[in-house]
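Summary for the lay section of the report: proteins are chains of building blocks that fold into shapes. Here we show the chain for Cytidine deaminase and then a coded description of the shape we predicted for it.
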Amino acid sequence: MEKIIEQTREYLKNAYVPYSNFRVAACVQTKDQLYFGANIENASYGLSNCGERSALFYAYSHGVRKEDIQAIYVVTTADVITTPCGACRQVMAELMPRDAKVILANDDEIQTYTVEGLLPHAFDAESM
Ligand code: THU
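The coded shape description reads as follows.
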């Protein structure tokens, strides 16, 4: 876990954050691969993409599917642990198993949740 957090931390430098200057790096873990991403902002702020979604979309773009995913790591340098925004929780509920781990880290601390724990009763295909 520590090693993956270290590797994810490397991707903070790739965040494109001219507006918030807040860097977020993420890593999707499958049985045998790691897929990294960072947050990418836009002058039209709402079009910005969080680090979690960058990593998840990158993994899916490489053929990864829900059942392959064991965990997502989210790393910042904030003083407090950064928890995923609502949009990312919804995307995690669609693209990750509900029992997959969501591992959050800053320089001092690691906290572990699950997709279900962060978004219970999620809206999904079965909700329609
Ligand atoms: N952000 C993430 O990438 N992940 C989170 O979990 C929270 C917020 C990004 C979005 C934006 O680029 C910046 O952090 C400030 O909100």
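Put simply, here is one thing we learned. Residues 8 and 122 are 27 Å apart (CA to CA).
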